Amino acid sequence: MVDTAKKKEKPPVVESLLAPGHRACAGCGEALAARLIMDAAGSNTIVATTTGCLEVFSTPYPESAWKVAWIHSLFENSSAVAAGIEVGLRALGREAGINIIAQGGDGATADIGIGCLSGMFERGHNILYICYDNEAYMNTGVQRSGLTPFDSHTSTSPSGSVSWGNPTEKKPLPQIAAAHGIPYVAVATAGYPVDLQNKVKRALSIKGPKYLQVHVPCPLGWAHKPEDTIEIGRLAVLTGLYPIYEMENGEVTKVRKLGKKRLPVEAYLKPQGRFRHLFAKPEGKEEIKRIQKIADGNIERFGLV
Amino acid sequence: MKRIMEGSMAVAEAVKVCRPHVIAAYPITPQTHIVENLAQMVANGELKSEFVNVESEFGAASVVLGASAVGARTFSASSSQGLLLMGEVLFNIAGMRLPVVLACANRSVSAPINIWNDHQDAAALRDAGIIQFFAEDNQELHDLMIQAYRVAEDPEISLPCIVNLDGFILTHGFEPVEVCDQKLVDEFLPPYKPLNYLDVKNPMTFGALFEPTWYQETRYRIQETMEEAKPLIEGVSKDFEKTFGRFSGGLLEKYRMEDAESVFISMGSVVGTIKDAVDELRKGGEKAGVLKVRVFRPFPTEAIVEALSGVKNVVVMEKMISLGAGGILASEIKQAFYRNPQAPKVDNFIFGLGGRDIPLESIVEAYEKTKKQDNRDVFVDLRKEALEVDY
Amino acid sequence: MSKPVGIVTKPGSSKANKTGSWRTTRPVFLHKDCNDCRICVMVCPDGVIFGSDSSYDADLDYCKGCGICARECPKEDIEMVLEVK
Hints:
The complex is a heterotrimer.
Chain A lengths: L3 H4 L21 H13 L3 E5 L3 H6 L10 E4 L5 H15 L6 E7 H7 L1 H10 L4 E6 L25 E2 L2 E2 L8 H7 L4 E6 L3 H12 L5 E6 L3 H4 L6 H10 L6 E4 L2 E5 L10 H4 L7 H4 L3 H19 L3
Parallel strand pairs in A: 1-2, 1-3, 3-4, 4-8, 7-8
Antiparallel strand pairs in A: 5-6, 7-9, 9-10
Helix pairs in contact in A: 2-8, 4-6
Chain B lengths: L1 E5 H12 L3 E4 L6 H12 L6 E4 L3 H13 L4 E5 L1 H16 L5 E6 L13 H5 L6 E4 L3 H16 L7 E6 L7 E5 L3 H7 L16 E2 L5 H33 L7 E4 L6 E5 L3 H14 L4 E6 L1 E3 L3 H7 L5 E6 L2 E2 L3 E2 H9 L8 E6 L9 H13 L5 E2 L4 H5 L3
Parallel strand pairs in B: 2-3, 2-4, 4-5, 5-7, 6-7, 11-12, 11-14, 14-17, 17-18
Antiparallel strand pairs in B: 1-8, 6-13, 10-12, 15-16
Helix pairs in contact in B: 1-2, 1-6, 3-4, 6-8, 7-8, 9-12
Chain C lengths: L24 E5 L9 H5 L5 E4 L2 E4 L9 H5 L5 E5 L3
Antiparallel strand pairs in C: 1-4, 2-3
């Protein structure tokens, strides 16, 4: 039963720091994650965003969904722009109590922007970098990126009579980030909103460069039902394909265990059109086995069961 | 008191007295001495700036963009490939109306790789919405750096500025320079007060998406501002003269043009050599002069037409070319005289590319050619061997 | 610049854009079994579920009808119905 005394402690819901009216698709995992992240960070935050869906859907001039100080410059430089913001504020004596967040999609982070990102880590700026990982270039029409998963169908890694889709596995960006010796690295998903917000708060409590990679299901690009966004996020974790964890000073400090909830990878692959080709032919079973191996590897590596 | 110094130090000394909050740069020859000098000043505690060693010129430009967006005064420097790598960000800085100031040690553009001087790097950014100055010598360079901050940060301008200095010729060339006094600079250049900046108390959105219904007006505004910058640049130069007792700015400089019939037009350090050539020609009874283009963007169209009033022959000497179209400065000067019945004959020469020496005799020879024939996009001192022998 | 140069000065001005018109299905909050867990509030991508004390509703000016709230409600207290216009 609901405790009535406890109930009264909850103030009415207030509008998010990412305001409604933005043009994200219905059920957008990235919009959801961005909203949760902004609300966890609070209004004393300056955000630098890369070019991509997040920027396009939130800022068609003269409208802006952002209620925090926000800047978009280019596709590959939100980390460097944020670095400029950080040193600029420090030089001006205005840095106290301000969170600086740099953010971008998986392509902006893992591919075109990795140079600037590495520079930001190496120089030790007090910035939280957030990678919204929807596993392809969604804004330009679902092309593969360095974070597109194995065998995923995208418009530039299509499945076909002699192809099972994307031939490579995801670039290990959290490990690349951690190898810079930065104090905090975490992986989360829009499928576990409370966990995501806790990781944002934890990250912002630590001084120095932080990296948070967030799995954000994309109903359009992944071809799943919009109402399944949270469920897809959960399934990614429960199959072991997208382990969510925290690393501090290079060591894994926390993982979300699967226990008895562990599921075979089919549970994650089947509801998504981008993996449909794996189920269309009998030979697809072999491919699914290979994907299961990836999940098994993650489970062993991170001790998920 | 004058001190003998490299152009790179003349830039660094100017930047120092402008007290930038943030400097971000990446090494490239022949720019590197500038930021090395600044890094040493910061290391010595003489300059209180955040000096950010970045991973690329692209990163350097992005860092100063971010810093400028929070209201900091910024500086960066580059050259050639580095400037081109910054290019995407520099267009962005201009579009966001951020008054970033940069120095460009002018160098040719690869391929083939060549680290020596010409103006092709600056030319590549002529359409970006950046105000561009070209310095002839180290004193002018020093003075233009300080004026560039005033121009860039003027609330009615709010555009980035590049001060161009010829690679090696100025960057590594020693000349006496009177370094501007800090107190006077503080008077001349007030602290930067941005009208818009990133602030958690007034959370604005910078860099929004502009659909076709909005974008064109942003270009219109920059073009309009460029026009408005012309008188402002002249005014800033006069203010500078009042404060420091030296006139070293303005859109153009005239040399021996009082009664000139034939006038050279050029930019950068080579103007010094051309002045010597004019002195020689004058000795031989020629009515020759020089018009130095100190400000390349905004292009001083009206001032050039006015300065060339009564001139019969114009000899454009430039270290850059729009490949497939021809001399850049020449075409802009010709355009300035479009449908003007008093238009002079305009001959143009391309020279000094990739650091090729420019002897005085070659300048005189070009001048003589203009008397005999029309000269369009004529390359000066082409080497037969380099054209005919394949190694 | 004393002239407008394209900086958005009104934070949250996206509210001028009523995305509710996109909707094909609409969440109906039944207000029967709500346990005040606020999962619906948490999972709404557009942040348009408001209210307090076990009384929550979607702001239909903006709700795009994705259906995540109904899918995630542990009490099945939200129903998606076809939008009829």
